[in-house]
Amino acid sequence: MAETLRSARILARPVTNADIRAVAGIYGGNRDLLVLLDREHDPLVLSRRFTQGLNLPQSAPSARLHNFLLCDVRTEQPLGLLSLCMGYPAGDVAYIGELFLHPSFQGAGLGREICLRLEQVLRPGPAKTLRVGVGLRNWNALRFWVKLGFTHVTGMSGDRHFSPHGHAFIELEKNL
Ligand SMILES: CC(C)(COP(=O)(O)OP(=O)(O)OC[C@H]1O[C@@H](n2cnc3c(N)ncnc32)[C@H](O)[C@@H]1OP(=O)(O)O)[C@@H](O)C(=O)NCCC(=O)NCCS
Asked: 5-133 falls under which CATH superfamily?
């Protein structure tokens, strides 16, 4: 997996501790959505996890986690963040743990652009499929991923009992 990814408008580079304010701004801009996605939805807690590489799925070795800050390729202005875990949960799977754009940059094709670039970079292998976990109440993202071809359901999880504050996830996959 390359250190950086570059598309027409985006430079995805490894995040550092110095990026914590930018990362907090991206999570903070999505605050209303975060509440729907998980019990932990404090932008500062999530930002620390992201910049320190502590946002690993359980049992995934840390060497395979890549946390990127997505920046404007010309101005280097932060646009969003992307987390990718290689070889999780199996050797031939790459897992998008998180993809968040700041609301100011949503709906302009940037999400699609970075995903298509990522697929291109991953295609030589070893990953044969790309997976993503999506909150079931995140209907905009569900539409986004399905449009990108993530149509194979590989898992579902969620709170056993319904409640207004419950959480549930679906895991979607596409072939590379
Ligand atoms: C989801 C997200 C990454 C998509 O990136 P984006 O740049 O906004 O999406 P794009 O402009 O590339 O849109 C690609 C397609 O997804 C669909 N889509 C994107 N945002 C949508 C929205 N708010 N409502 C409905 N459809 C949407 C569109 O149909 C679009 O296809 P079209 O151009 O043919 O109409 C981005 O909106 C985001 O960061 N959202 C908040 C965080 C989030 O939900 N992340 C995903 C967690 S799994």
From this structure: Gcn5-related N-acetyltransferase (GNAT) (3.40.630.30)
Our mutation pick for probing the ligand 1 site, out of 140, 151, 171, counting the most ligand atoms within 8 A of Cβ, is 140
CA distances from 73 to 2, 5, 37, 101 (A): 16, 10, 29, 15
Give SS3 for 118: helix
- Domain locations along the chain: 5-133
> In angstroms, what is the span from residue 111 Cα to ligand 1's centroid?
6
The predicted-structure confidence for 56-76, as pLDDT tens digits, reads as follows: 877 777 669 999 999 999 999
Distance 144 CA to ligand 1 centre (A): 5
pTM: 0.95
